[in-house]
C-alpha cells in the first residue's frame, strides 16, 4: 500500500523539482534531499547532505528487518513517530529519556545514547541536536565488532558540530551526514522519514511482485 501524499507536500515537491537545478543525486538520494529542502525551504542542503556508499540500502534493509531507531532527543523522535506508526512501527527510542543522571564528564544525551548503543548496537541512530553525543557514538563504534545499520548525523549549532561530523565521516559506518553547522531536529527527522517512505515503497513493490 502506497503512502498518501498531502496535496500541499506534492505541490511543494513540484516547486523544488523546478527550482533545484542540476544535480547528480541518484533517485533515492534525491528523495531524501528533496524532503530535507521541503522541511527547511533551504536549497543549500542540496550541497550539504552527503551519503556514504550503500547507506540508503543499509537503512532500508534495517527498517524492513525491524531494527530499533534511536534518536538523540525527543523532538527528533516526535518528528518520526507519526509516519513510523503508519508503516513499520519499529521500536523508537529517545536517548536522552533513557537516563536520569549523566555519567561524570558527559551530558545526559551522551549517556543515554551510549546506553542505547550498548543495548542496540545494530540500530539506526538519528542525531539532530547533540554533537557531543554524536562524537561519543563515533568513538564507540570505531573499533566495535557490531556497528549501527546507519548513523544520520545532522546536529545543528556552533560548538563541536562541525568536529562531530568530521569524525563521523572518518568512521566506516554507513552514514548520511549534513556537512557544516546546519541541521537540527526537522532535518534529522526529514532524512529518516524519507528513508521510511523509500523502505515502505520497497516493501509494497515486493508484495506486488509476489502476488
Features:
211 residues, 8 helices
Compact description:
With about 210 residues, this protein is an alpha/beta fold.
Overview of this protein structure:
The protein has eight helices and six strands; from the N terminus they run ααβαβαβαβαβαβα. The protein has 211 residues and is α/β, with parallel strands linked by helices. α4 (74-85) links the parallel β2 (69-71) and β3 (92-94). The protein is globular and about 50 Å long.
What structural category arises from helix and sheet content? alpha/beta
Rg, Å, rounded: 17 Å
The largest β sheet comes out as: 6 strands, mixed
Shape summary: globular
Going across the major beta sheet, what is the strand order? Answer: 1-6-5-4-2-3
How far do the termini sit from each other?
13 Å
Per DSSP E runs of 2 or more residues, the count of β-strands stands at: 6
User: What's the pLDDT, averaged over the residues?
Assistant: 95
Helix run count: 8
User: Percent helix among the residues?
Assistant: 40-55%
Low-confidence stretches: none
Instruction: Bin the strand percentage.
Output: 5-15%
Helix and strand succession? HHEHEHEHEHEHEH
Task: Give the arrangement of secondary structure elements.
Blueprint: H1 7-19, H2 27-40, E1 49-51, H3 55-65, E2 69-71, H4 74-85, E3 92-94, H5 108-119, E4 124-127, H6 131-141, E5 150-153, H7 161-170, E6 175-178, H8 185-210
